[in-house]
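From the pipeline queue, job 12 of 40. The input is one protein chain; the requested action is below.

Action: predict structure.
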Amino acid sequence: MSMIVVRPRQDRVVAGVCGLLARRFGLPSTLVRVLAVVGVLFFGWTIPVYIALWVVVPSD
């Protein structure tokens, strides 16, 4: 069985990457967004990962 990963249209603020990760791991999207902001502030690697997922993962 293959799970297709797509960025949702309903749970978007910028590109839907946090909504995708929240749905995939069963977490609230607000928590994932807060973790993404914390990652940007304390670890610079979050921005390139976000952009890469935005480019690679297709939209819903």
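Job complete. DSSP finds three helices and no strands in the chain.
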